[in-house]
Amino acid sequence: MNDFALWPVLAGAAAFFAVGAIWYGILFGKAWQKAAGLSDGDVRSGNMGVIFGLTFLFEMLVAMVLWHLIARTDPAPHVVIMMAVGFAVGVMIPAIGINYLYQRRSGRLFAIDAGHFLVGMAAMGGVFLLFR
């Protein structure tokens, strides 16, 4: 298994992106919008091409790091999922939690966003299992 492989990284990022589309679309879209304090106009005013494009690039970066770690350590399948979820629980979620504390964001917004990172990283780990 190569330290970097384009297809797993693209597929892992796509899985994370798909989770986000569902999470912030049909599952928690309105609740997230309310918790974030965004009006419909605020949401429509954003440059969605830039927002989605940068989101996917950031998710690619996360996928590259996780894939590299998996490639270097060659863990058992259950450990791949543990690494993906552990990265969310141990790094990503605390990082947004720290930011939200200082930004005085609500616990509800934190729960929605933290859930997205947790489920998105689990999906990425699951996709990576398909490429091993």
Account of the protein in words:
The chain is mainly alpha-helical. The chain has one domain (6-130). 86% of the residues lie in helices and 0% in strands. It is built from six helices and no strands. It has helices at residues 6-27, 29-36, 40-45, 48-73, 77-103, 107-130.
Helix-strand blueprint:
Layout: H1 6-27, H2 29-36, H3 40-45, H4 48-73, H5 77-103, H6 107-130
Helix pairs in contact: 1-4, 1-6, 2-6, 5-6
Summarize the structure.
By secondary structure, the chain is mostly helical. The chain has helices at 6-27, 29-36, 40-45, 48-73, 77-103, 107-130.
Strand count, sense and closure of the main sheet?
none
Question: How many strands appear in the DSSP assignment?
Answer: 0
The overall number of domains is 1
SS element count, helices: 6
Rg over CA atoms: 16 Å
Mean pLDDT: 96
Proportion of residues in β-strands: under 5%
Helix and strand run: HHHHHH
Secondary structure: helix percent:
over 70%
Content-based structural category: mainly alpha
Task: Give the N-to-C terminal Cα separation.
Answer: 7 Å
**What coarse outline follows from CA principal-axis ratios?**
globular
Low-confidence stretches: none
Transmembrane segments: 6-27, 48-70, 76-102, 109-131
Keywords: Membrane, Transmembrane, Transmembrane helix
Protein name: DUF1761 domain-containing protein
